[in-house]
User: Fold this.
Amino acid sequence: MKTCKWCKQKFEPSRPSKICCSPDCEYDYGLKHAARAESIRALEDRKVIKMKLEEMKPLSYYADKAQKAVNQYRRELLSDEPCISCGRHHQGQYHAGHFVSRGASPALRYEHLNIWKQCKPCNVDKSGNLLEYRKALVARIGIEKVEWLEGPHELKRWRKDDYLRIEAEHKQLLKELQHG
Assistant:
């Protein structure tokens, strides 16, 4: 005696490979397994589509994600500091302001010495308020490092894995900073 895979009743199989007690149970059981197989295929198709979409993303997507992680870390690290340009604390929005802009020197895009907490009015409305930014930066890190930031830099060739590494490192640093 066997137990029917569909209705769970005992039956005597007419052949050893029979798993259901009747043609109706076999049909219903087959439909159930066909639906399950179809859902598995659909999941696999979605995974393939997701992988292909991931491959199609431009490098700028990963560069921006890395920049977001670096900026978030720098803002959190400097959360108790005032704006580097105007030296004031306020309730408004703060940015991670670059002393040397990302466009002017892409090589310094993720350089911590180049990224400081800056209020929105200084960063956006005053285009970085660079004269005051430079004075405060010299006071914080010294003239040699400021001149190094202002000097020429070799353009770095970052690849997707570099951006992913930068993002992961800064997310980890941020996590340690928030919980440590």
Q: What stands out?
A: The chain has a mean pLDDT of 93. The chain is about 55% helix and 10% strand. The beta strands are 2-3, 10-11, 94-98, 115-119.
